Amino acid sequence: MLDKKDPVFITKLCIIFICCALAFSFVSSAFSARAQAQAAAPAARSTATDIIPGSEGIPRISLLGFAVKIAETTGISAFLRGSGEGGVPKTEITPIGDSILIYGWMEMLMVLVGFGIIYLGAVKQFEPLLLIPIGFGTVFANIPFAGMGEGPHGFLHIIYEGGVGNEFFPLIIFIGIGAMTDFGPLIANPKTALLGAAAQVGVFGTMIFISLSNFIPGVSFNLLEAAAISIIGGADGPTTIYISSKLAPHLLATVAVAAYSYMALVPVIQPPIMRALTSKEERLIRMKQLRPVSQKEKIIFPIVVFSLSMLLIPSAAPLIGCLMFGNFIREIMIVDRLSDTAQNALLNIVSLFLSLGVGSQMTPGKFLNSASLIIVAMGLVAFCIATASGVLMAKFMNLFLKEKINPLIGSAGVSAVPMAARVSNKVGLEEDPGNFLLMHAMGPNVAGVVGTAIAAGVMIAVYAG
């Protein structure tokens, strides 16, 4: 007899559930075979007078057939047998164009991954605004027979095709980010822009590693694919989606999920790298308070940056232009309704849809293959190199500066705003509870947004078309 106070109560329930599911599957298979045999019998018993006009081709009413159909279309049956036609594994195309069989356990695994992502967002609170909708999108896309991620009318398919697989959502999000961003710390301390530039070493350095990976048997990435993968190092989801849609649309799903995953895991990935590359004395460096920045400077800044992007890197102008447009309507202070909409309602709505769309691409065919695993691994390499490059650049600059920079703010050179800046501040406070680095870290952080957009523009200009 089961006792709820028994520590193995849950285990016993799981065993009973699995046994019932297996029995259910075997019984449904037997009934299915019987129903198919009956369906294959000659249909001579039906006469013309039996057929209702308009019902030609529709199976005759059968209690057994009805029960079998219900059994075959349950999630339990699909996860145990497969969700393809007739309960067999279905076929899906991988990002590199190969065709693989998708078994029921693969879809179940991706559902569990989706719930794991939801757990990280809801319980561990790792960027819940991103991870919770991505997790639900993953679960939705892998529900057997639901078709939410399938075209042309699937809910998630419409979201993905309408805004994720093109420029639409990324550029709108850049408008919202610009409306939320205060470039004052960067204007007050412009040398921190070098830290944002240094973080792009992770982007271009990873292109070399990806090219070298082609020596691995069975691995083959061209330069367009390498560019799309390496931009993950900037920890900027919208930019990753933007450049992938231009250069390697077939990899968009994988690199987008990797980019957003690493953005959410900034508080986990960065601190060990920061501590490993800095001494306790360096982490205790206190920086002087930033000078006040006038409103006039803040208004001129987005116009100047946008103008320079048009003149020097036109291919980056859409990203930088939308970012600076959002920032301009924030700083001009005469269109508060537009600014408020961009940084609140519009950004939240588009972020919700984009995250659902990204999650919808987490299917077995796109992730349970060697190419996708290499992409995710290389994305992690890119992100780690970008973090380390910013810290090392700050240490190098300190060799020449009278007023030293705390190297911890160098890690904020990746464009995960404001997560990376918060992590720099958090690690600094752990060493010295009175050392607030947040505003200093915002300088390289916003510079990283611009830097990643420039890096994307350079790649598009060089390799696109």
Summarize the structure.
The chain is an all-alpha fold and 465 residues long. The protein is built from 22 helices and two strands.
Description:
A hairpin with a 5-residue loop joins β1 and β2. This protein has helices at 9-40, 63-72, 75-81, 104-122, 128-141, 155-164, 168-180, 184-188, 193-198, 201-212, 223-230, 237-247, 252-264, 266-277, 280-283, 295-312, 317-331, 336-359, 364-367, 370-397, 419-431, 438-463, and strands at 90-93, 99-102. The relative contact order is 0.14. It is 65% helix and 2% strand. The chain contains 22 helices and two strands. The chain is elongated. With 465 residues, the protein is mainly α. It has a two-stranded antiparallel ribbon with strand order 1-2.
* Structural class based on helices, strands and sheet pairing: mainly alpha
Coarse morphology:
elongated
- Give the spatial strand order of the biggest sheet: 1-2
**Percent of residues in helices:** 55-70%
Instruction: Report the radius of gyration as a whole number of Å.
Output: 27 Å
Write down the overall mean pLDDT.
84
Low-confidence stretches: 40-49
Number of helices: 22
Number of strands: 2
DSSP strand content = under 5%
* Spatial gap, N to C terminus: 70 Å
- The SSE string, one letter per element, is HHHEEHHHHHHHHHHHHHHHHHHH
The major β-sheet equals: 2 strands, antiparallel
